[in-house]
Amino acid sequence: MAKLKWDTYALVYHRPKGEKGEDSYAYSFERHDLHALAVFDGCGGSGAWKYPEFGEATGAFVAAQCVSPKFLDWFGGVETRDLSDPAALARSLHSETDGLLQRLKGYCGAMGIVGGLVKSFPTTAACALVSEAPGGGIRITALNAGDSRVYYLTPAEGLVQVTRDDSRGDPDPLEALRSNPPLSTMLNADKAFAFTPTQLDVSSPCAVLAATDGVFGFVRSPMDFELLLLNALMNAESVAAFEQAFQEDVRKITGDDSTCVMSFYGWNSFDAIRKSLRPRLEAVKAMAAALDAAPDPAGREAEMRRLWEDYRKATLYYEKVG
What we know:
This protein has 322 residues and is an alpha+beta fold.
């Protein structure tokens, strides 16, 4: 396989709780044939038990911090030929992470709390493997469990959500922003879980994102999240400036840990990224302006529903493919 044409990557990582924050991340861009980026969000509500074996750290913190290096260990053994069977990759990653979580549970004493929502070492995972697509562009193989997400971004399509959240009731992304539903699946050491595999080919230029809900979960709508991202790109002169700007913008609206890893393919320069995405930014700005122009709450809700129906058809990959 030809060398994967890669431009650069960006990392946004914010821990309002300090070193006890429950997000983690992993990435690997050293190989010429296959890249990896992933985020993990320790589930603080169900994983709040503090383990003396880990210096009183919560199970959510320990899970995210331990699963991220395990993901990189697993990725080191993945070959491009393995991408032909995404379901097998999902089972393989499950085996590795479940084994780790079981070992953590066996190492520690029993939790002093019980209940249906309480779990040993719970965390979400959103992982993306990126390779060259046979017909050109890139192939994304996403493996997810929970409500962290994988997206891709292109000038023509905008910000497309690849993975479907594992949330009770299966709300769409707009409803999820409003209701913050509990998870139906997450990595943990008590109950069965599974990774959902998704594979698709995307024409380049293209960016791939893996993000925890602290990045996208506190905006008014999914359209506003895309606007936040594109504005940060347009207002920056470099990748480092983009990282700082996006982190500051996210920090203004979230009180949660927030983590995003983003890799860019096929642009060749940061200026080219900005130039090609400017028309998309103007289109999304128009959506936000239409919402802002509504005269009252009822009008804003009606406009939101109208815009969302069009936006979701274009940007929810799992709905596009049925």
